[in-house]
Structures are given as C-alpha cells and as structure tokens.
C-alpha cells in the first residue's frame, strides 16, 4: 500500500511538472507572438503601413491596429472557452498555438504600403485579429490546465505559467533591440520581419510539447458524471455573472499596466523624451528578467497570505508609483530608467499577475471554468490592455505632459482595489465543482 501510494504520488508530481512546463513554454511562445506586434507598432509599423500620416498620427494608427488584437480576444475567449469546457482543455491549447503561430508568421510576410497600398494595413488588421482570437483562449486554457493539476499549491504552480509573459516580453523586446542595431535601411527593409518569421520555429516546439499533455482530472470527472454543459458561455453570463464582473474588475489594472510599462514607455521615451531606442528597450528587458523571480514569489506568497492580500498590495503600489514612474523616466538617465521600470514592474504588475493564474479560475466552477476565466480576462484586456497605449498616447498629446497618463493608471488601480475587496478569498478553498 505504501509503495503504491509512493508511486502514485511520484507520478502525480511528474505529471504536474510536465503540465506546468508545457503550459509555461507554450504561453511564453504565444506572448512572444502577441507582444512583438506591440514593439513593432511603437518602432516601425507606422512608417511601413501608415506612411502618409504625420508620424504621431501614424503611431496612433499603428496602436489602433494593435488594439484590434484585444478586441478579438473576448471573441476568441468565448469560442475557445466554449469548446474548452465541452471538449477539454488540451485540445484547445493546441488550437490556440496554431492560430497564434500562423497569424504571427504571416505578418512577417506582409507586403508594405508602398508595395500594395491600402491592402497592407487591411491585411495587417486581419492577421492581428487572428492573433487576438488565438491569445483569447491561450492564457486561460494554460492556467486552468495547471491549477486543475496543482492540488493545494495553485498559486505557486499557476504563477510559473505567468513567467511566460516576461519571457515573451524579454524575447520580443530583446530581438527587436538586436534588430535595431542594423542600419535603418536594413531594419526597415527586412530586419523588422525577422522576429515575426522565427515564430514559426518556436510554435513548432510548443506544438509538439503540448500534444503530450494529459487532460485534467477535474474535467475528466465532469465528463464521467455527464455534467458537461451545452452552453458554458451562456451559463457564465446567466448564473456566474457576479464572478464574471469581479474577474474583469480585478484584471483591468494589471493588464493595463502590462502594456503601459512594456509598450507605451517605449513610445514615451523615444518620441517625447528623444531617447535612443536601445535605452528603453534594454530597460524593459531587464524589468522583464526580474519578473522571472518575482512572479513565482508572488504566487507562492498568495498561497500563504491569500490572493486578496497580494492584489490589494499591488493595487496600492500602482497608485503610489503612478507619478514617480514618469519622474524617473524624465531624468533621461539609463540607470534610473531601468531602476524605475524594474521596481514598478515588481511592485505592481508582478504582485497582480503572479496570483492571477489561480485567482481568476478559482472564481468559477469546473463546468464553466475555462469560459469564465477566458471571458473575464479577455474582456478586461479589451477594455484596458489593448487600448492603454492608444489612450495613453492620446492623453499625452492632449495634456502635453505625463500627468494625465498617471491619473489614468490610478483610475484603473482603484477599480481593481474595489473589485478585490468585493471578491471572495479563494486560496484556501478546494476548486469549485
């Protein structure tokens, strides 16, 4: 009996480790695919796909196409979440990998405005929409897959999947930092395409790894009990609407900060402050690297102190740092810029994003967990993530200074604090069945 139990425990641990590894690797690849577009939008897409506009207006147009991916995310979340709750978590994770990889690779193949005219931005929008559909079901599927295998350490194991985000940020920003060392003519001609084209190799690796995943025990139980719902998305909106609204509320600050810190800061530093691209890109990479450690730490702490404690701390720090972030950026000192991005990313985004992998799915029962987490995360992403660089750029132009952007960060943070106070503590409860 003891030997059998030991073998079972070892097998379960091995399965959990493989699920975490496969989910984190796939998520890193998909975030890389999604985030290289944001960096490209800040650096080059306005010149190649919207050349007839004033440079600032061209940047706004590029960010508008950037936002299209976030508009698509709730649609992808609803479609993929529906089938994830009906057919299983594993199958949908393979589908999202294909959608993201194909969309990203084809962006790298696109002719520019000078080659095919208005069809260039139209095709860019279509491919960005496909990217959004894929990511809409990716993150939620990956974290649901992990926490339904993770037992009582859902916060820690879930946060390991979140490391895929800073890996994606570091990889996306790092490769663009490398490409920008090319002469401008080469960068504009072919250098910008390289980050998109190599995605196909990364996706191939992730696809193979994910094919070997085992379906989660919680979903298997639902199938065995014949409790699979015909319309899980409708059930979320009809019966789990409170959890759905809370999921949106606790996410808007985190997802907004993610893209303000990694995308808008690039625009602010290069256009408003006139800094070399390399300075801000390097700072973003260093901040993302630090999150390799701080995200798992935040997830681990949320298992000890609860999800709400970490979220409230992250929300308060987001308010406190909204103005100092720009004070340090305005010094134009590379060391201080790197320092403020590292500190801000650690005390705001990491404290929110680390526990999110467990907190979000824990709000929903097994039958609708994939759909609920997908809808909550992606509606919030559409509201604050995709439009944050666009809104921040417009606010900067309107106000002529960063203060309006700081107030925008504070407003998002207050929403998250209120939602967190209204949400139940889920860290010490078993997953809802």
UniProtKB/TrEMBL annotation:
GO terms for cellular component:
plasma membrane
Domain Major facilitator superfamily (MFS) profile: where? 19-428
Membrane topology designation: Multi-pass membrane protein
Q: Which UniProt keywords apply?
A: Cell membrane, Membrane, Transmembrane, Transmembrane helix, Transport
Q: Where is the protein situated, by its record's location annotation?
A: Cell membrane
Molecular function via GO: transmembrane transporter activity
Kindly report the protein's main subcellular placement as a broad class.
membrane
Keyword Membrane recorded: yes
Q: Which residues cross the membrane?
A: 31-50, 56-80, 92-113, 119-144, 156-178, 190-211, 244-271, 283-302, 309-329, 335-354, 375-399, 405-423
The cross-references to Pfam families, in alphabetical order and at most eight, read:
MFS_1 (PF07690)
Q: Which domain of life is it from?
A: Bacteria
- Which PANTHER family does the annotation name? SHIKIMATE TRANSPORTER
Q: What protein is this chain from?
A: MFS transporter
Source lineage: Bacteria, Pseudomonadati, Pseudomonadota, Alphaproteobacteria, Hyphomicrobiales
């Amino acid at each position: 009996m003891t030997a059998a139990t030991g073998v079972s425990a070892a097998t379960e641990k091995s399965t959990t480790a493989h699920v975490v590894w496969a989910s984190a690797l796939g998520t890193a690849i998909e975030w890389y695919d999604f985030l290289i577009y944001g960096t490209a939008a800040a650096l080059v897409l306005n010149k190649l796909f919207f050349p007839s506009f004033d440079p600032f207006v061209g940047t706004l147009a590029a960010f508008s196409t950037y936002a299209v991916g976030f508009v698509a995310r709730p649609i992808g979340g609803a479609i993929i979440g529906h089938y994830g709750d009906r057919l299983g978590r594993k199958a949908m994770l393979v589908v999202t990998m294909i959608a993201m990889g194909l969309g990203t690779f084809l962006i790298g193949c696109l002719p520019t405005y000078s080659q095919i005219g208005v069809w260039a931005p139209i095709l860019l929008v279509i491919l960005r929409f496909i990217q959004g559909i894929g990511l809409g079901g990716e993150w939620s599927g990956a974290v649901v897959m992990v926490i339904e295998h993770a037992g009582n350490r859902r916060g820690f194991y879930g946060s390991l999947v979140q490391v895929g985000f800073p890996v994606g940020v570091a990889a996306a920003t790092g490769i663009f930092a490398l490409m920008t060392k090319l002469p401008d003519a080469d960068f504009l001609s072919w250098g910008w395409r390289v980050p998109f084209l190599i995605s196909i190799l990364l996706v191939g690796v992730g696809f193979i790894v994910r094919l070997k995943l085992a379906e989660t025990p919680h979903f298997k139980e639902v199938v065995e009990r014949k409790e699979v719902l015909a319309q899980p998305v409708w059930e979320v909106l009809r019966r789990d609407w409170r959890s759905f609204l809370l999921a949106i509320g606790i996410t808007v600050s985190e997802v907004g900060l993610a893209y303000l810190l990694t995308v808008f800061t690039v625009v602010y530093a290069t256009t408003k402050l006139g800094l070399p691209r390399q300075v801000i890109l390097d700072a973003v990479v260093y901040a993302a690297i630090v999150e390799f450690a701080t995200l798992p730490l935040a997830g681990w702490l949320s298992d000890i102190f609860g999800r709400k404690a970490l979220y409230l701390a992250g929300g308060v720090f987001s308010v406190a740092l909204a103005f100092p972030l720009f004070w340090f950026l305005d010094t134009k000192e590379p060391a201080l810029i790197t320092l403020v991005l590292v500190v801000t990313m650690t005390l705001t985004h990491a404290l929110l994003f680390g526990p999110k992998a467990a907190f979000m799915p824990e709000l929903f029962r097994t039958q609708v967990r994939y759909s609920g987490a997908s809808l909550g995360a992606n509606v919030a992403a559409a509201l604050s993530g995709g439009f944050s660089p666009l809104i921040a750029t417009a606010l900067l132009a309107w106000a002529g200074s960063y203060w309006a952007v700081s107030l925008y960060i504070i407003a998002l943070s207050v929403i998250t604090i209120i939602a967190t106070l209204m949400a139940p503590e889920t860290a010490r409860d078993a997953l809802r069945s």
